[in-house]
Design a protein that fits this description.
Helices cover about 40% and strands about 20% of the residues. The protein is of the alpha/beta class. Strands 2, 3, 4, 5, 6, 7, 8 and 9 form an eight-stranded mixed sheet that branches. α14 links the parallel β13 and β14.
Length: about 700
């Protein structure tokens, strides 16, 4: 796309003007390029013209006929203007009505040949005959305008108040007519040929105004041959950016760690469990990376409870042995606190200094971080603040949980000269997302859970079946086991009908007067939360009523029951994460999903998936399918460009092809010197973020 087209003011496009340009801004159209890539969200086939006598009531139909009557009617009672047309095609007469659009009287005249498209109704006065309200129209006897609204496959666009679909269609058509031949095809010719892709200008025109005979189904699903080219371009540009980032990391000078293994050996001797084969394999992959002179950039994937955190700690101890600091960034204060407490208990005897840095910590440990007194710093996004300085940062660990992305990782890496980076995910990431959100990283999978763990039995109960749930609680607590009860909110609110944790605690105290009930939630001070969790771990609390603060990082092997109240309101990933808090001992555990009416179709699907599967990777794929990629990880958080046409689930094969081509190109031309137009287009696609990649 030539630079002047990107900067060309919208108001000078035929049919726009200053006021309409403001309306176009509301839907995200700022320039010519935005207009060209403002794709229809669906299509209607209006090419099949029916005889009026053959019309079907209730269907969207297209007819052609001659105007035999045109009249503007004013209704005095409601001050309503109704413009009525009668058209005749030789087989029957059809009435068309437009409400409060008096200007329509100037559009039509008796004798005009016109096309109409709308939902067919019975004549409102006689109860027979045919009628359409506010139909789309095209005047066939008018030679001043190309017919784009009827007698063809017609694009339907998202619009805003004051800007109709018909106006939008006309504006897009005018942009295409004026600028189509100035569009530059920046993708190398050999890549287009290898992937059977058409020319960009042909595809952009036809994605808006498809030629007759194009399969309407493929258009509406976004997989037509025209969509395929536009989607490929987006995925190629996305992967090209990630390929450059990954390539730069491989040629950067990093830290070559040479650990003695003394501290690590001492840590492993103190653990109350043995590492699984998968944990040992993944740590060896990390250690191999850390010994290389290039910076490590690795993602650790694994299901809930597979033991990712201990592997990350082993990497941090390796850095400590070599005289370097480590930083662990968690997505929430509560998780950061839990990491701090767990790690502190394990490493304090080793003489390793650990500190916590979150917005909730009053005495900020800036000085001891800057002078190197502390070995491991654990915190939230507070770690990437401008004023935080490390003396010798060598390893960055990011507990991602889908909440940090490419740009946040880059900002944390800027805290030191090319530190090693290790990213952990709280739940498995589908492969499609791994290629996008983490496309710049190598990754390891911990595909084994600790031994002697029995699978958790998951059961869905309705509110009317609560008695059975209480019986299970009674039965398990009688055996000396403990119970979590998770609520979606802390307190009742007028704005929601959700049951709350505070009232839930009171209810359970009445139902089980002989049991000790505790409560934990996010508004408590860290010390209070720690005390409650300590009591629960020690068996001083039988039932712990909670919000989702126990979603991560809590390990109580004696807890065998998890009741999730309003389970229909939770996402799949969160339900799976909560379920992971139980089943950590040798006893049979139960996860009860207690659902309250009304339960939507999508919510029921989530609950059924949880009931049938305990495989985190399968659940993640289902979650991605239900929510879509944008909602699954949040494009804004990821730092990745928005995709207007491509869908990484639907277009997975295209994504793989685009990734292959992008990485192949960067292997031979790391700075894209041979394709200056492609390089410029890439910078525009990433909106300047490539510069941050360079500094990172």
């Amino acid at each position: 796309m030539a630079k002047n087209l990107r900067d060309f003011p919208l108001q000078y496009i035929k049919g726009v003007g200053p006021e309409r340009a403001k309306l176009l801004l509301r839907v995200g159209i700022k320039n010519i390029k935005d207009a060209l890539y403002f794709l229809p969200y669906r299509y209607e086939d209006r090419s099949n013209i029916k005889k009026i006598c053959d019309l079907t009531y209730g269907k969207l139909e297209t007819v052609s006929g001659t105007i035999i009557s045109a009249e503007l009617i004013k209704t005095p009672r409601k001050r309503l203007h109704i413009f009525e047309l009668l058209i005749n095609d030789g087989t029957a007469i059809l009435k068309a009505k437009w409400f409060n659009q008096p200007y329509m009287k100037k559009v039509f005249k008796k004798g005009d040949q016109i096309l109409l498209c709308g939902i067919v109704k019975r004549n409102s006065y006689y109860g027979t005959g045919f009628e359409m309200d506010n139909p789309e129209y095209e005047i066939l006897s008018d030679n001043t305008e190309t017919h784009i609204h009827l007698n063809r496959i017609v694009p339907i666009y998202s619009v805003t108040k004051g800007l109709g679909v018909r106006q939008m269609r006309t504006i897009i058509f005018n942009v295409l007519e004026t600028y189509l031949n100035e569009i530059e095809d920046v993708i190398p010719e050999d890549i287009l040929k290898r992937n059977g892709l058409r020319r960009l200008n042909e595809c952009l025109y036809n994605v808006h105004f498809p030629e007759t005979g194009t399969d309407i189904d493929s258009l509406n699903k976004g997989v037509s041959k025209y969509h395929r080219r536009i989607s490929f371009d987006e995925l190629f540009m996305l992967q090209l950016g990630l390929a450059i980032l990954k390539k730069r990391k491989t040629i950067e000078k990093g830290i070559s760690f040479s650990p003695s293994g003394r501290l690590l050996k001492y840590l492993l001797s103190r653990l109350p469990f043995q590492l699984t084969d998968a944990q040992n394999r993944v740590f060896n992959e990390i250690l191999t990376d850390m010994k290389k002179p290039q910076p490590m950039n690795r993602l650790i994937q694994g299901d809930v409870g597979c033991g990712k955190t201990i592997i990350a700690l082993m990497a941090m101890i390796t850095a400590t042995e070599c005289g370097y600091q480590s930083a662990l960034m968690a997505p929430t204060e509560i998780l950061a606190e839990q990491h701090y407490l767990n790690i502190y208990r394990l490493v304090d005897e080793l003489g390793i200094k650990v500190c916590l840095l979150t917005s909730g910590v009053k005495d900020k440990p800036f000085d001891i971080i800057a002078n190197g007194e502390v070995n491991i710093v654990i915190g939230t996004h507070a770690l990437i603040q401008e004023g935080i300085k490390f003396k010798k940062l060598g390893l960055v660990v990011i507990d991602e949980q889908h909440r940090f992305g490419v740009m946040q990782r880059a900002l944390l890496r800027k805290k030191a000269y090319n530190p090693d980076v290790l990213v952990m995910t709280a739940t498995p990431i589908p492969r499609t997302l791994a290629l996008t959100l983490y496309g710049d990283l190598d990754y390891s999978i911990i595909d084994e859970l600790p031994p002697k763990r029995m699978p958790v039995k998951t059961l869905v109960f309705r509110e009317s079946e609560k008695k059975a749930v209480y019986n299970l609680i009674y039965s398990e607590t009688k055996k000396g086991r403990q119970v979590y009860v998770v609520y979606p909110v802390i307190e009742e609110s007028e704005k929601t009908d959700l049951r709350s944790a505070t009232l839930g605690k009171e209810a359970f105290e009445k139902i089980f007067p002989s049991l000790k009930i505790g409560i934990i939630h996010g508004r408590m001070k860290p010390q209070e939360r720690e005390e409650i969790m300590s009591k629960f771990k020690n068996g001083d609390i039988d039932i712990l009523v909670s919000t989702t603060v126990i979603e991560v990082g809590v390990d109580v092997p004696n807890a065998t029951v998890m009741i999730i109240i309003h389970a229909e309101r939770f996402g799949l990933s969160q339900l799976h994460q909560l379920r992971g808090r139980i089943g950590r001992g040798s006893h049979q555990s139960y996860c009860i999903l207690l659902a309250y009416e009304p339960i939507g179709e999508e919510a029921l699907r989530r609950l059924k998936i949880m009931e049938k599967s305990s495989d985190g990777f399968k659940i993640a794929e289902e979650d991605l399918d239900i929510r879509g990629p944008g909602e699954f990880f949040g494009t804004r958080q990821s730092g990745l460009p928005d995709l207007k046409s491509a869908n990484i689930i639907r277009d997975y094969q295209l994504l793989k092809s685009a990734r292959y081509e992008a990485f192949k190109l960067i292997e031979t031309d790391p700075e894209i010197q041979n394709y200056p137009l492609l390089k410029k287009s890439l910078e525009n696609f990433w909106k300047g973020k490539m510069e941050l990649f360079k500094t990172a």
